[in-house]
Every structure is written in structure tokens, then in C-alpha cells.
Amino acid sequence: MNRVIGISGAVGAGKSTLVRGLAASVPDSTAIHFDHYERMTEQPIEEVRRWMEAGADLNRMPVPGLADALLSLKHGRAVRDPASGAQVPPASHIFFETQFGRQHAETGQHVDFLVWIDTPLDVALARKVRQFAGEIDPRNSAECAAFGPWLEGYLENYLDVVGGLLRMQRDTVGAKADLVLDGNCAPAELVNRARQAIAGLSS
Question: What is the C-alpha to C-alpha distance for residues 172 and 81, in angstroms, rounded to an integer?
Fold first, then answer.
């Protein structure tokens, strides 16, 4: 049976970069992403706050079809990515980008090996803001004018709700990881360290 390797970390920790690097360098591999299935971020921030105040039960987070997709890939059946519409082929190594690792029971039960990228939250936030800023077209005055108010709202939500969720994630998901990587390291080094650990699973 194919093996699911979960890649977890905070927003901005470097999950996507690591998954891309591993999928490009590990033979017979494919990738699937929690974000392409989740529906929580479609909810108003007030709903997210209430969910957090009620205990932030990760098993109440809707990710329709994701558990079935993971199971299909493990058994050698291709699935379709709901975000891009592209076909995700099965492979021996299934790199699963997931914020919640084994703590989300419905999908976590299919994770065979979990990697946690341990990136300081201030560094992760700075990386994410830099990414957002880099996506703004400096020639588009309307985009530039809208970015400041949008960023203010993003940071307000981070201080009010998201930061608390990330600390909870670090203390629960990271604690259950099979491999912890230093998120301050260069992406190429993270890929190499993860590859070494993955190679050891088959030896």
C-alpha cells in the first residue's frame, strides 16, 4: 500500500515549499493539500472565534471528500483535486500538506509518517505578509491602495483569533510528529533532511 507522509506547520512555516520540493525530488511521489478541501476559512471570522472559544474541536472542521481521497491514493486510485480540477495520480509516496496532522481524526488516521516544520510564529507571519505583498502589482494603483486596509484586517484577525489557533496547533500537532524540522533552515536543507528520513522508512 502507498504511504501518506503528512507535512504540517503554522501558516507561513514553509509547508507548501517543502511539499513541492519533495514531490519534485522523491521518485514515485504525488501531493495532496488540506487547503483544497477545507471549508472553515469560508466562514465569517466570528464563527471561527466561536469555534475556538468552544474548544476548537478539529474534528468539527469540514473537509468533504478528503479522507476518501487519501484512502483512494493509498490504494492506488487517482483522485481529482477540487480546487484545480487536475487529476492527482497515486504514488508510493503521498505528500499531504495538512495543518492538523493526526489531530484531525478523519484525515489523520491515514497519515503514516508526520513531519512538523517548527518555525517561530513571528518568522512565519513575516514570511506570509511578505508573500502577500509580493503578489501586489505595483503598477495597479487600486490594488496598492486596497492592500493597506486589507492587511490591517488580516493582522487584526491574527491577533484576535488566528495566533491562538497557531499556538494550539504547535502544542498539539507538533507534539505528535515523527520528525521535527527547524523552519529557520533553508528550503533545500529541509528537503534533504525530510528525504533522508523518508528513505529510512523503506530500509
Answer: 28
Between CA 190 and CA 192 the distance in angstroms is 5
Q: pTM of the prediction?
A: 0.88
Residues linked to residue 26 through DSSP beta bridges, in sequence order: none
Number of domains in the chain: 1
Look up the CATH number of the domain holding residue 133. Answer: 3.40.50.300
- E strands, the chain, are 3-9, 29-33, 79-80, 87-88, 93-97, 113-118, 179-182
Buried b (16+ CB within 10 A) or exposed e, 109-144: ebbbbbbbbbbebeebbebbeeeeeeeeeeeeeeee
Residues in CB range of 131: below 8 A, 6 or more apart: 12
Residue 22 lies in domain: 3-202
| Residues ≥6 apart with Cβ < 8 Å to 149 | none
Q: In terms of Cα–Cα distance, which of 117, 91, 111 is closest to 9?
A: 117
Amino acid at 29: S
pLDDT per residue as tens digits for the range 56-112 = 777 777 789 999 999 999 999 999 999 999 999 999 999 999 988 999 999 999 999
Q: What are phi and psi of 44, to 5 degrees?
A: -60, 150
Judged on CB neighbours under 10 Å (0-12, 13-18, 19+), 106 is middle
Per the listing, cell 501518506 goes with 4
- State how far Cα 39 lies from the chain centre: 14
